[in-house]
Every structure is written in C-alpha cells, then in structure tokens.
Design goal:
451 residues, Beta-galactosidase, Chain A, domain 5, 3 domains, nine-stranded antiparallel β-sheet, 40 strands, 2% helix
Length: 451
C-alpha cells in the first residue's frame, strides 16, 4: 500500500518473572498508545506470565516500519464493565443487535443509517440449495434456490460480551442452523472507524449442493457497486467488456454474478459508501432469494459444496470447521474513500517482539523504504531483481488520468531503468539522489529497476 497505515496489531508477549500486572506502550516520541490484553496466563501471584497485546498502530510509514516500546507495570489494571442490552455506541457508530445479526448501524459522522434490515440483518448467515459443478459452469454461474433455506435470524439470538477494553469490544453469538453451527464475533474498535465480522461455520456436515453466504444489506437501492481485481477496480455495469466473452461463454458479461474479488467489495450512492474487506474470493450484491428486494446486499460466499465437472470426478464437500474475517467501514461516496482501509484489513501489519534494545542498530526507529506522494499510485511489488542485486519496484496507476510520479527511496539511487514485466530493460529513466521520476499512463502497470 502506498499510504501511511493505521491498523490494529496483535502480538504475543511474555514476562520471565512475576510482578507485571499491566503494560504501557509508547512510540519513540513518548506518545502513549491505548492497549488491551487477551489470552492472559498468570503466575501464582496473579501477575501476567504471557498474553496477547492489542493496539492500534498509527502513522506507520508507507512500505516501512515503526517502533513502539513496551513498559511492564506493577499497577493493577481495572477491568471495564459495559452494560449491554443489545445496543452499542462509540464515537463512530450507534449499533443495534437483533436475531441473527445487526439491525442497525448508524454512522454518526455522516448522519446516515447504513443498513436496511427488513429482509436480512448485517452479518446474518444464510444457506440455500445450490446445485452445480464448479469449473463446469461455463455458460453461467449456478444460482441458488430456496430449497432448504435457513438463516441465523430464524432463531432467538443470545448476544454476549466476550472482550471489552480500551482498544475494542467483542460481542458474539453461537447458533445452530441447517447442517452447521454459526459462531459470529462482532469486534468494534473504539478509535478506528471499523467493524469486524469474525464468522465461523463449525461442524459443517459436508452435505452436497449447499451454499452459505453472509449478508450486508445496505440502505441504498441506487448504489454503484465496485470491487478490487488484480491491479485494478471494476465498477459494476460500467467496466465490463461489451457482450459475452465468446466461445462457450454466452452470457452478457455485465449480468454475471456472483464474481471473483480480490481484497474488497463496496457500494456508494450520493450520500455515503460502505466498503467490506473479504477473506473469501467470491461475492455477490443481488438478493438471490424469492421475492428479491432492490437494495444492494453485499454477500461474501462462504462455502458451496459441489461435484467435480469431470464425469468420473469426486464431490467437494469441505466437511469440518471454516473461519472467515470481514471488515467494514463507511465513508463519503466513492470507492477510493474506503479502498485503503479495506485492503489494510487483509494485508495485516506484521509485529515483531524484541526483548532487548539494540544500541548499534543502523536504521532509525521509523522508516519508509519506498513511497510516492500520490495515493492513486499502488506499489504492488518490491523485490530483488532476478539476475542481479538491483531492486525491482512495480507501480500501478489506479486513476483514469496520466500521472507524473516521483518514487522516493530510503537509500541513494545510482541509476534506474524502465523494464518489461520479465525485467528486460527498455530504457534508462531519470534518477536523482533518493528519487526516480516516471510517467505513468492511466490504469498502467510499470516496472522499474533501481541500482
């Protein structure tokens, strides 16, 4: 990502001796960061032996790192108790919990209700009959039907607070539905405009031709749906190739759904936008049930049991437990306003725990290795060159306009050249000290070799 990061971080920490009852976390400037501990194991005196540390890492440099310092404390922390009666509120959202999912998510900044819960709740898991053979669905994608339909909202839901602290609150339920058990945890962050849906299908019985989806029913009927694809974004109804793909593919491309997505899918109208990151590769936005509603319902497809397209092939049942993570944020209209946070939810920050200081460290406490000043430019690759010790950087212009871009490096650049995708040099390009200037056409992908 070519943007400064602000994302949740979780890391295991441990203490060799008793006496630690809480921790303090601060960056190199001494600015303290709110923390929360979970999965705590204790010494016999009740002090912390090991735990998972959670915090929001702010101002992490583009394609870089930032250092925080952990200070053990003998001060006993006070557990926060939050009264919960199926409602929750922080400075970003007012949320109402109902049977099977969330009945309301009100954005306090935009002053708008995000959810239309008349048919589905936000986060509601439902199952339908879906007969098909996967790769053999050449002409069109198999659509589910109402045979054996079931959903978490068909049952009384008992929501319980699992974790509550300075960083986040987690509220969960567990419910048996047709052929599986749904366990869902709603994680709401106090200082980030983000809601996580940690959804699990447990004890899935492996029944042939069943499909499970999760619903995010948006309060919009005029939304422009968009989703990420490799090196780009598709806006539904605008960016598809005209007509059908040809040969055996005879369905008009713009009518095909569900579709394969990369990191996220979202929708915007003139009032607001919602973007959802996804750990599954297929999502829909059209109500698949009988008497469909007209509002956009973002639907990651969790699981679909199929038979092989080969006439002697086997069944793909995927029996057992399956876990998924979906993260949503709301924002001003337009996919660009939600893209970076949604991608960041999937491309998590990697934390490293060091139990000692390195006085001879050669790098500063915070550093960006490569960046540009343009948020429309996506740095998709940084790697060693195939045939030398030079560095390969690949840039993608996500905008519809040509760009003149300056790529900044943490180390001096002695020379640079434009290459093709297999790193064959095309021409030299201008470089100066720690930067390289390059012209990027609209929606183009360019590869640069740095010396």
């Amino acid at each position: 990502m070519n943007t400064e990061r602000e994302d949740p971080v979780s890391i295991a920490v441990g203490f060799d001796k008793p006496g630690v009852y809480s921790v303090e976390l601060s960056d190199a400037s001494g600015i303290k960061t709110e923390t929360q501990l979970s999965d705590i194991t204790n010494y016999s005196d009740g002090s912390i032996k090991s735990a998972t540390l959670h915090f929001i890492a702010k101002q992490v440099p583009t394609i870089g790192y930032k250092t925080w310092y952990l200070k053990p404390s003998a001060k006993k922390s006070i557990k926060e108790n939050r009264e919960f009666q199926n409602e929750f509120e922080n400075r970003f959202y007012s949320i109402k919990f109902g049977d099977g999912g969330l009945t309301s998510i009100f954005d306090k900044e935009l002053n708008v209700e995000l959810i239309d819960s008349k048919k589905f709740k936000a986060g509601e898991v439902f199952t339908m009959h879906s007969e098909g053979n996967g790769a053999g669905e050449f002409a069109d994608i198999q659509k589910p039907d109402m045979n054996g339909f079931d959903k978490t909202g068909n049952y009384k839901t008992n929501w319980k607070v699992e974790d509550n602290g300075a960083v986040y609150t987690t509220i969960k339920f567990r419910q048996k539905i047709k052929n599986a058990v749904v366990e869902q945890k709603i994680k709401i962050y106090n200082n980030q405009k983000r809601i996580d849906f940690e959804t699990a299908l447990l004890n899935w019985e492996g029944v042939l031709y069943r499909e499970y989806r999760m619903a995010l029913p948006l309060n919009m009927t005029d939304g422009q749906v968009a989703y990420e694809v490799p090196f780009g974004v598709v806006e539904v109804g605008k960016d598809e190739m005209k007509g059908a793909a040809g040969e055996r593919y005879n369905v008009e491309c713009k009518t095909l759904h569900p579709r394969g997505i990369e990191n996220w899918i979202g929708a915007s109208n003139n009032e607001f936008g919602v973007t959802m990151s996804s750990t599954v590769v297929v999502a829909d936005w059209i109500d698949p049930t009988d008497n469909p509603v007209s509002n956009q319902i973002l639907q990651p497809v969790l699981l679909a049991s199929r038979r092989s397209c080969h006439w002697e092939g086997n069944e793909y049942l995927q029996t057992g437990d399956h876990r998924f993570l979906f993260s949503i944020t709301s924002h001003k209209p337009g996919w660009k306003n939600g893209m970076n946070q949604a991608r960041g939810a999937n491309e998590t920050l990697n934390a490293v725990w060091a139990d000692k200081s390195f006085v001879d460290a050669s790098l500063p406490e915070s550093l960006s290795f490569f960046k540009t000043e343009d948020s429309d430019i996506f740095i998709s690759t940084v790697k060693k060159a195939e045939d030398s010790n030079n560095i390969i950087v690949r840039l993608t212009n996500m905008d519809s306009k040509d760009k003149s871009v300056t790529l900044k490096s943490f180390a001096p650049v002695k020379g640079a050249s434009l290459t093709n995708l297999i790193e064959e040099e095309i021409k030299e390009i201008s470089s100066k000290k720690n930067s390289v200037k390059i012209e990027l056409g609209h929606h183009s992908i360019e590869t640069i070799k740095l010396k």
